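Tutorial handout. Part one gives the primary structure; part two gives the three-dimensional structure as tokens.
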Amino acid sequence: MLRDEKGAEIKFTAYQVSPNDALKKQEEFRKNRQYSEAYLLSPSSLNKLVLLKPTGLQVGKTYTVEFRKSPAELQTFNFSTYNEFKFTGKLENTISPNEGINFEFSNLVYRADLMKHLSLSFKVDSAYLRLDASDEDYASSSHYLPLGFKPATTEKITISKNLTDKYGNKLANDVVITVKVSDYPESVAIPTGDVVMEHDTPFLEVRAMNKTSVELELASLSPNDVMSNSTRYYYDGAEQAAAVSGLRTFPISFKNRKNQLSIEAVDLRTVLDGKSSGFVFAQVKSPYYDSYAKKTRYTYQRALIQVTPFAVAAKHAKEGALVMVTQLKDASPVAGATVKVYDNNRTLLWSGTTNAQGVAKLPSFNTSPFYFFVEQGENVAYTTAAFREGIEPYRFRLYETREYEENEYNTADALRGVIFTERGLYRAGESIYFKGTMREYKNSKWQLPARRNYYLLVKNSRDETLLKRKVSLNNFGSFADSVKTAATAPLGYYSIVLKENDDESLYPSVASTRFRVEAYRPATFSVKIMPEQNHIFNGDELKATIEGRYLFGAPMTGDAVSWSIQRSPLEFITFEGYEGYAFTKMKRYDERNEDETEFFIASGSGTVDNLGQYKLVQRIALKSSQPAVLTIEGTVTSPSRQAISERVSVRFHPAEFYIGLKPKSLFAKENEALPIEVVTLLHDGKARSEKVTVELVHRQWVSVKRVGVSGRLEWSSEPVDSVVFKQEMATKEKEAVTLSLPIKGSGFYVVRAMGKDAKGNVARSETAIYASGMDYAAWERRDDDRIEILLDKKTYKPGETATLFIQSPYESATALLTIECEGVLDYRQFELKNTAPSIQIPIKPEYLPNAFVSVMLLKGRTAPPGKFKEGDLGKPSFKIGYTRMSVDASSRRLSVEIKPNKKEYRVGETVEVELQAKDAEGQGLQTEIALAAVDAGVLNLIGYKFPNMFERFYAQRLLEVETSINVIHLIDQRNYGEKGETRGGDKGGDGTGGFSFRKDFRVTPYWNPTILTDESGRAKISFKLPDNLTTFSLMAAAQTIDQFGNAQTQILTTQPLVMTAALPRFVRVGDKFEAGVVVTNNTDQKITVTVSAAAQGVKFVGEGKEKLSLEPRTSKEARFRYEAEAEGTATFGFTAESDAGQRDALKVSIPVQTPYIKETLALVGATEGAQTEIVKIPKAYIPTLVKSLCKLPLQHWSACVKPQHIFLTIPMAAWSSACRASCPTSWQLI
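Part two.
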């Protein structure tokens, strides 16, 4: 129902669209800028989309949509139509020159459209009119625009009547806005925060606007003063002056020129008693105009200034910190300087001197150094861990890779552990078995921890402690334990943690895991998706089979299937034997993914056939030259209404072939030819001759400094591509074709190749080349201090040599190269020459599994202050780059093999398993192995498997080093960028009528956390199977001291005739319900099966037998009726016998619960005589659940010689006859 504001009905048409049509409609809305991409529909919503098309809607009105989820549940939502389009802002404005104008409208307007339809009576700097990419699609009813007004003027702004709102409506007339601009308000400013000044020009600029004089306060500080009061200097805008000892007042007079900036320079050597270097605190009381309150306010601006000739760069880390000291004027190393290092509490950690390279390498500490103070003669300087604005590790995208996003184990912890349970999911009342392993990272390798004793803590979902005890690690650094939950245990996530202290908090811990306690039914079947091919070409049909099969081996028949196909683009692909070739387009990190909105392809539904299969066919036609992974997701629902999903991936190829490009090296030299190999490969990696076009593009950046809206100089860089080489060629089937690329100069090159297949699909590939040389390379310039550095390979092995390419903005500089991880592992200080150099780095074993390469460049002063009108462009500066270096750790991976004596078993049989562990060289070695045999039906519910021990301990390590440098705060216009135990019990069950009932259903028939192999890595175990007809997963986790591995295999327990319980998890007293079994003919013959049912604890209703006719490999459900009459346990027995003599018998118990609502009544009073209280008991009360508690104060206890002195007018049938006194001050009736 659709209603207007008065409640009147509005006519409309409604229609449902298919998922594909919904995608088209969504894309139409996106292209027409009707929807933000944040509001695009999710794949699961596409098949639920209903479009409403009302008639006769009016402008500026609100309407209500009413619908019912059920007859008793009315739901509504409102929407409004757009308003009459008009300007709603002020036509007369009075502002200060620093303010902008707010343009307000009745409807949404695109910022880009507004800017195009403005006419101004004054000239505006182009910086104010520049639009960012995000402004193109930004729509709002209110736009604030700073336009750089000049003081003491009156201006006119005209909005053209041709301006349209988001919905295409135009203004009725031109809008003329008058802006009266006042004088600049009074202001005083000094550089605030941390400030560094070169010692030969120690002048503090005090700037004033429309102000005649001000008092500047200055004080000289010692290093201890700096550390003691450092927080004061970061608080700019305080209303109270800072109380710093030694403050001296310096009166400053200005040439008061109306609306013009006056600058006075204060020589800081005055407060430093003539010294050329030192630390100074400065503050000044500054007026500012509060544009909201429309009045002048006062705050204090503050600065901590170091006047110094030194640049101090530091690497902060607990293990292996480092500091380098150079001259600001020419970046030359400062040898023999005294360095004192303090922690954040001002405790001296270390003192020493710099070497000939100006570097001091520090020992390990328990805490990371914070302050680095440097002294040589009268010259001083310092840096702190806070001096890192704009160069924090996250800004270098060190962790923005799929490897980091998908691996939960990435960490920086030196003490690392893993704890895992044998299956991850349990019911209340079951025991949880688990194992833990601990290691300590020392001297760049994993070792047994120095500490061998820890505290174990297990907590439930309510943060209640279930287990707390001390555990000791064995000779393999592991421990094992178990905990049993109560039958009434709360559901949810439980935690197991290992701690170094014995408190009951989950944090901090050295290792942890979680498991779930839930009420669940094990999965009885599995779902497989089998694509006809593991690949598909653009424009072809995708064909796949979705299969549902019971875990005891039989197919499902006639059951419901639903499916969907989604797409994930691939940035890189590889082919065996063609390592180092590029087969896809390059993508810069800041470029938009052209395919990001095409993630959903199609969806559908159907049923499986008599073989348990559903055939999926879908044509795939995408406008993309990018390979991708197509994910097919299928869900099958069983007769017992259990739904299980599965996914499989298929590779999407944009064309029939790929073009591979492999330059001889990622790094070339200027004015030399670089060979590049070109191949064309089919999807399977086989070469084929194709016609392609190859071109070499030289990309340079034209960079200029511009004054931004903030008034600061900002870099603006635009890429300029020039084609220096182009050639059409034919590739060969037998070998790669080598082209010679003419590298004309140093810098960045892109090699592009393109071809078309027989269907017209385009194949594209690109690769990059970095050319080093003596000529100047024009790199992209940014308003921060970061540069790009690149390695020639993605992964290295110990003993290899890596080549590092540096995109330097300097033609010469002092360079500090560091290899870092938990600390500085290695360093090299050298003079770097030219703007595109490359250097060699030997790969050491201690870099496993990864390290981080950093290059810091320092440049001295290149021009005196005042040479450039744009600002001090020649001041000392620095740049820094980071990249991650991965080192292959496969030499530490164990190969583990699980060999059961056969793959298929009957219930009660003994399984014999051989285990074999080998190192990366294929040699057996003594190993500790944890092995579990678990019902796959339970594991599949949560997708559980043992954690990958190798990935846990050899995951990519995080960077634990922070870089700081005082040059960050070198005074000028500064910009920082955007800010086994074999488990007990034989098979049970009494024989009834010749049937042996299956009732010993164990989820984990075998668990042994510490199987010790012999010296050759071999071990044998055996265990007896329970009555489950299912698939069991055998999972193993193996370890030595520094090597780890996992393995998993499956065995099947089945029989010709199988019954699977189809029961509720529980029933309640009074329930009338149906329950039964799904009977499966697991043979190739048609059979007739007689199913008999019996029950205890519930009332049987109706017939107790049913006959089923079953085709080969099919299933049917037999259902019977019951009624629950009393609380307790209901036991269901089912027998099945076929006319061919196959039998099965099943016995399963479920709880019968009592539903009730708890009511509580409290009576409180006092009396000196008799008192009668009446409690009304509901008619439908449950006698066994009624309780009463009566308490009397101690002084009145003597009045009650007998409990009968208290009379309760409650029917005694409501109480049990027990009556007891629990303590001297109270008594209870229970």
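Part three, for discussion. Confidence is low (pLDDT under 50) at residues 400-411, 589-597, 973-992, 1194-1230. DSSP finds seven helices and 83 strands in the chain.
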